[in-house]
Amino acid sequence: MTRLDCNVEKCAYNADNCCKLREIDVKGTKAKKACDTQCGSFSNKACDCEVSAELAIHKETDVHCDAAKCKYNDHNSCMANQIGIKKNCTPNKCGTECASFECQA
Question: CA-to-CA distance for 51 and 65, rounded, in angstroms?
């Protein structure tokens, strides 16, 4: 399991920089840098989605990752000891990214 820090305040699963999900998905099949990735498990608090209050806060999470060029990706699982998910905003949209992505040589 990977130690996960998430500072995406608008995510319905975020509680005190921890994730309420035991597993998350990181997307970015063709990613070459962190801003090319995104948290595929993100759910916007503003969408009025129902998130179970019973979900426990997890500091360690299984991370399924399809960022094939990330040095921490081992058969679509993240092998990093710790990752960070953060907000990624461009002039056209706001989203998320895996701030710990490192492109392998």
Answer: 23
